[in-house]
Amino acid sequence: MENRKEKKAHPKRGLWKPEEDMILKNYVETYGEGNWATVSKRSGLMRGGKSCRLRWKNYLRPNIKRGGMSKEEEDLIIRMHKLLGNRWSLIAGRLPGRTDNEVKNYWNTHLNKKTLLGEKRKTIDSITRHDDNIEDHDSKKPRQISHDLDENKEANGDDNVGVRDVTAGAWMERVVRCLDYETTGTPLMMHHNYSNLVFDEEPFASYMDPFVLFEAFGAIDSDVGLGIKSFLP
DNA sequence: AACAGAACCAACCGCTCGCAT
DNA sequence: AATGCGAGCGGTTGGTTCTGT
């Protein structure tokens, strides 16, 4: 009579119980991070892999810092957001012990109103959205933009042409990659001539946040630092 | 004390990417 | 080259707690 559906094991949802946390913690300690899809099978947790991953990453992982943000952290978030826009994982990466989710929530609840950046300040994304006729470039993530640029460069056979057409967003991505020089070992700025950078809207200098300069000059190789310094007005 | 609205935050969802096959 | 899968990311939702009346 009633239409009995095949009983499908829907993953449990909602807040995590301490017992579940303990199971997940034990699982990760035994099997390590990753293979989240198999967590429920191996551990008996009735949770989806995504949920487990998120719970581990945002709550159970060692060295997670709980509690309110310090003034320094808050300041850093504001500056990083000015620089990167809503790239929460990148911002969180510079705040030891903080997760992207936490930074995002903190921004949305505390800082967004405070700074009014949400409306008045242009982020990387909004800057690349300067022309409605432009294809869906604004929705592309840095990796994609970077890829586009490489293609552009190849098509023209000229480094400078590709660089000249770069958007602010793509440029920002390159700066971020420079900031990550320590870990990647690839001094990006050394490979390109950025003297032809053109920005359609905001003056270039608006991106020369003292924090950026501090980070860039402090963290990376002096040659690269010099490359960045050459942009200064 | 009771209620409503605001604020907060954990978790979910949809999408994209990178990698293996 | 095409496909599938695991993982990561940012936006959004919804439950809980706080605050004002």
TrEMBL record:
Gene Ontology process terms (BP): cell differentiation; regulation of DNA-templated transcription
Cleaved signal peptide residues: none
Superkingdom to which the source organism belongs: Eukaryota
Entries under InterPro entries matching the protein: Homeodomain-like_sf (IPR009057), Myb_dom (IPR017930), Myb_TF_plants (IPR015495), SANT/Myb (IPR001005)
Residue span, Myb-like domain: 8-60, 61-111
Annotated GO MF terms: transcription cis-regulatory region binding
CDD domains recorded: SANT
Start-end of Basic and acidic residues biased regions: 128-156
Annotated region (Disordered), positions in chain: 128-160
Main location: nucleus
Subcellular location: Nucleus
Domain HTH myb-type: start-end pairs: 12-60, 61-115
Keyword tags: DNA-binding, Nucleus, Repeat
Gene Ontology CC: one annotated term: nucleus
UniProt name for this protein: Transcription factor MYB82
Source organism of this protein record: Hibiscus syriacus
Organism lineage: Eukaryota, Viridiplantae, Streptophyta, Embryophyta, Tracheophyta
